[in-house]
């Protein structure tokens, strides 16, 4: 009887020891699992925090870069515009002097009948003449607008000059001399007289033709604009205006 009681007590002690071991093992497992989960949570939190920080950093960096870019772009743009204006060359244009802008011509017919002279000579001449409109660039004024990339050129109105007879193309359409007058000298004198008359007629016609003056002004604008751009190669964006004044 005593032996059975002792045996039961030992069995209970063994069961209690086994349960204690199980509890210890469970506690260790729970501790390890808690540590694992804590580490995982901390890791995920750290990654999320790192991602958030990187995103915020990238946004701030991009925003700062954009602001700096815009700032220095504006500075560079202003500097570029000033440089362009500084490169506009106009001073040498005065060295052109008399700028030829338009050539004009006229033809006059001078008829001298034998009843109009004492030598019974009939002479018909076709006399061409020509003249040149020029602009005095030495009197030119230049005004530039740095903001608009613009040049205003003020010059005297085109002037008609160098009116001459084109002697190489004078034609004798008719010449009839009296049979009793064979003097070459008289014929030459008659020709000189007719050429002088033609010279006056040509000058009168050219000076009186207002269309020539209008055309000369248009031609002057074209020539001066061409000159400005010629002195500034690669700068075809320059806006050129031309005004005329009485000299």
Describe the structure.
This protein is an alpha+beta fold and 247 residues long. The chain has 2 domains: 1-86; 90-245, no CATH class. The protein has helices at residues 2-86, 184-208, 210-230; strands at 98-112, 122-136, 141-145, 150-156, 159-165, 171-176, 239-245. The strands form 2 sheets. Strands 1, 2, 5 and 6 form a 4-stranded antiparallel sheet that branches. The protein is rod-shaped, with a radius of gyration of 53 Å. It starts with a helix and ends with a strand. Mean pLDDT is 76; it is low at 79-86.
Summarize the structure.
With 247 residues, the protein is an alpha+beta fold.
Biggest sheet statistics: 4 strands, antiparallel
**Number of domain modules:** 2
Low-confidence stretches: 79-86
Shape: rod-shaped
Q: Proportion of β residues?
A: 25-35%
Instruction: Say how many strands there are.
Output: 7
| CA(first)-CA(last) distance | 153 Å
Helix residue percentage: 40-55%
Count of separate DSSP helical elements: 3
- State the assembly state of the protein chains: single chain
Structural class: alpha+beta
Averaging pLDDT over every residue, what do you get? 76
What radius of gyration results from the CA coordinates?
Answer: 53 Å
Element order: H for helix, E for strand: HEEEEEEHHE
